[in-house]
Amino acid sequence: MLSAVAHLARGIHVGWVMAREGALAFVDDAELPPHLRLVLRLGRKLERPGLGPGRLPAALTRLGPSYVKFGQFLATRPDIVGMAAARDLERLQDRVPPFPQGVAVATLEATLGKPLPEIFTSFSEPIAAASIAQVHKAHLREPDGTERVVAVKIMRPGVRERFARDIQAMRFMARVVEALRPEAERLRPREVVETLARSVAMEMDLRLEAAALSELAENIKDDPEFRVPQPVWELTGRDVLASEWIDGIRLNDRAAIVAAGHDVAALGQTVIQSFLRHAIRDGFFHADMHPGNLFVDPAGRLVAVDFGIMGRLGLKERRFLAEILLGFILRDYRRVAEVHFEAGYVPSHHSVDDFAQAIRAIGEPIHQRRADEISMAKVLTLLFDVTALFDMSTRTELVMLQKTMVVVEGVARSLDPRLDMWTSAEPVVRTWLARNLGPLGRADQARRAVLTLADVVADVPDLAQRAKRVLVRLDEEGLREVSRVERRIRIETKRMVWSTLALWVIAGSLLAIALR
């Protein structure tokens, strides 16, 4: 009860801040029931005068880091917040002042169990700070006497407790939204909050970030155009992550990239193709690919940093993504519709032809434009919007993909404004489909099935022996149980006989007394 009151109070505070910052202007009151419409009108009267653009970012920044993360998450969900609010949320920046150097050093020493001078020969002031952690540059002396430059990421003190409290309040508010507006259940607000909670929980253990970095490095070891820094495992713990220092130019500095002689058009294409390759081929992708996390190194390779937020796609989701992208490229709208039904995303009582018609309404307008005017991320956004007409629930596993694609496309177009997204995507999509769904893919699936069957056949004798032992044990236990039951029956039978005999003796005695 007390926690519900606390969450309600927190929700009222959130509503108050949103009202004061003018963020309620994005709520469409036409779709609200009368009692909520009245509350909205009262809230709008609390707006501070002289408010300009960026009202939602201002409100969420004032509410704290948890709400900044939530806002960035919702920026890719126009189906929930609307297009105007989604565009406004894109202004959000996860930038906060750094915490003191002494606190950072104390955290590092407590995590690694050594004083700073025994670990690094130099340790800089923070060079970047965000809501969860900040980064320092350090020099590490190797056993052979050489020095290595590393980036050291340190967790912000108290951040876990703050996020845990805010996430609980968000869970409560999601339940309230579903209770007040049952039709909102299709958007799965509680699942959206849980997805955010899992993402943030993973981001707050730097050992998991090091593991993600290692896994991605293994996936891309044969990709010549993309690389990631190597983690330093012996200097990594829950609150500290050390990794290779990257010397390069950030992708948001286009002028410096051009001055260094790099091909910006090729680099833009690499950004798109690398992301799709990781998502479709590997099912594991960097989900925070904003320009500040991407560099081009002196060799012209794309380098990513900051692996706190990663996305995963199962084989079913990867096939779904690949087939709908290829369907739009080839204008095969019926195939796009069929993929939705095959994946079970759209209920079977709907018509495939009607759904294909709705998808055509998205696809045909984009083919009337120049290739550089077509947004692949916008197509996915419109597609998810249309699917609401066919009772397709929000797929939480695709939310992070959609979010990242918006950012990746923006980065690629900042390098080459005339970049053709579809031409860049097509070879990646076709290669994966041919390898997994074409003749070679089917042959490989058959080969794996045969190997699996062979393993099962090879295990049959062992399984038979195990089954026999289990049956013997069951028989033995059954016999023991039968013996126990028989003994119990004999005891109960004797008891019943003696009881019956006693009753007859009593009855005979009473009869004799009565006759006498």
TrEMBL record:
The keyword rRNA processing does not apply. InterPro entries: ABC1_dom, Kinase-like_dom_sf, Prot_kinase_dom, UbiB, UbiB_bact, UbiB_kinase. Belongs to the protein kinase superfamily. ADCK protein kinase family. Coiled coil: none annotated. Pathway: Cofactor biosynthesis; ubiquinone biosynthesis [regulation]. Keywords: ATP-binding, Cell inner membrane, Cell membrane, Kinase, Membrane, Nucleotide-binding, Transferase, Transmembrane, Transmembrane helix, Ubiquinone, Ubiquinone biosynthesis. The lineage of its organism: Bacteria, Pseudomonadati, Pseudomonadota, Alphaproteobacteria, Hyphomicrobiales. The keyword NADP does not apply. This is Ubiquinone biosynthesis protein UbiB. CDD domains: UbiB (cd13972). Residues 121-451 form the Protein kinase domain. It comes from the Bacteria.
